[in-house]
């Protein structure tokens, strides 16, 4: 592992700039599906213990409500309750105007993805398209033809649909998948904002929607 980390620290900055700055950023979804990050470039299994024991600050935005916050929620091995409650509010059902406890493992994955890419100069908030959903909100999405499972983990506070600016679906989804915390859905869409990634803490599985 030491050799692997040494290699990553020596080469990742240049390699990431090359692959993220050119072919992997801003691609149309059709091309994005044809390309994958180089081996180990976005692999959370390459992280060492030092990464996981440092304080965790999660920066998120909510396009629906216009909110943005940077929250220190974990320090000295403990979840900070007031900060956790703030993140639960930020990941609330904006349409249903309801808040529920979010799975801390989900927050860990979101923070991990953000902190991982920040080590290589990509400092972007995690854009939360959907966090917790009430049953009514989930059903409304289904009726509108928007992908939403009948027994969605969003209903349990165990899922979020996200984007990270300047990283396409392949990169974000591949990184989230490498944390091995649960399910990862790749939703490819055309348009200026592209698609999104579904991340949850359920069974380990992947799909494309």
TrEMBL record:
Gene3D superfamilies from the UniProt entry: 3.30.1380.10
Domain of life: Bacteria
InterPro entries linked to this entry: MepK (IPR010275), TAT_signal (IPR006311), Zn_M74/Hedgehog-like (IPR009045)
Pfam families documented for this protein: Peptidase_M15_2 (PF05951)
Keyword Cell wall biogenesis/degradation: yes
Pathways per UniProt: Cell wall biogenesis; cell wall polysaccharide biosynthesis
Gene Ontology MF term list: metal ion binding; metallopeptidase activity
Cofactor(s) this protein cannot do without: Zn(2+)
Gene Ontology process terms (BP): cell wall organization; proteolysis
Keywords: Cell wall biogenesis/degradation, Hydrolase, Metal-binding, Metalloprotease, Protease, Signal, Zinc
Family according to the record: Belongs to the peptidase M15 family.
Protein name: Murein endopeptidase K
Source organism (scientific name): Pseudoduganella umbonata
